[in-house]
Amino acid sequence: APSLEVLERSLIASGTELTTVAMRRLDPTVQGSVLSVLERLSIQVLPNTAGCFTAGEAVLTARLAREALG
């Protein structure tokens, strides 16, 4: 499985300033997570609502992401 170190090197090499993150797989309270890497690199996060089966689920996921990510 790819490590956070590999992720970080890939993000740096790409020069990206924005990336999507699957909110269902994310715990914003965990240190040493994908979010920690993105914050350290000052990369903007665009919440991904893929996997939602209805518009209501997508809206709820987006609202939860807004609360979690600030």
Would you kindly provide a written description of the structure presented here, covering whatever features stand out?
This protein has 70 residues and is an alpha+beta fold. The protein has one domain (4-69). Helix content is 47%, strand content 14%. The protein contains three helices and two strands. The protein has a two-stranded parallel sheet. Helix 2 (34-40) links the parallel strand 1 and strand 2. The mean pLDDT is 88.
| DSSP summary, beta strand count | 2
Strand content: 5-15%
Tell me about the biggest sheet?
Answer: 2 strands, parallel
* Estimated structural class: alpha+beta
Count up the helices.
Answer: 3
* H/E element sequence: HEHEH
- What topology, given as strand order, has the largest sheet? 1-2
Shape: elongated
The number of domains is 1
Global mean pLDDT: 88
Low-confidence sequence ranges: none
Over all CA atoms, what is the radius of gyration? Answer: 13 Å
